[in-house]
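task queued by scheduler; priority normal; single chain, no ligands, no partner chains; default sampling; output format set to structure tokens
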Amino acid sequence: MSKKIYVDAVHPEETRVVVVDPATNRVSDFDVETTTKPQIKGNIYLAKVIRVEPSLQAAFVDYGSGKNGFLPFSEIHPDYYQVSPEQKKKLLELAHANIVEDDDDPNDEEDEVAEYDDHSAGEDNKEFAKRAREFKIQDVIKPKQILLVQGVKEERGQKGASMTTYLSLAGRFAVLMPNSRKRNSYGISKKISDKSERARLREILHELKIPKGMTVVLRTAAMGAPATDIAADYDYLVNL
């Protein structure tokens, strides 16, 4: 039986969408969009570097909202560094070092993307920053440079949103980080505790043949989902 979608657009400033599974009569998805407070967190923008601040080791970027976004040096992928080909190769080797296949990610404490990977300076970021500290942001990032960024935190007061260049795309069953610096190439939500189910999902992940440098995390919704549905969700995210 197909799922039912209910849309509440009675109020012009807010639209609410609910997806209901008729078999259980339970809500499987819920989303709200408002016109008064546009969402930035999770959105992806083509941004321009306005100012590089050596004292903060960060850059301020224009992403079109009227407020400059804050982009820490640790959140800038080496692909954007304006350095020699030899230096960039060394940095990329550092960025993708120790990527292994493991069914658990140490940061996977919650199912949602923002909780799984809040793009703060986690252990991988710290390790990378330590090994790449010979570079300073003012030496490798320049004003007017164009970057693809994603919102990490919403605007607060006069402050612009916090940004990262490490993208994270959420699907129904999976989360794809296409330019990840994570040690693991895949992960499974810790909310899925059944060992046999974790083993089944691990086999599905193996069959996806995830490219080096990408990370795929299966969400709690993947529990019991057919392999074909998970593979289709992964293909959708890769195409996106």
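post-processing summary
- Residues 98-123 have pLDDT under 50 and may be disordered.
- Residues 195-208 form the longest helix (14 residues).
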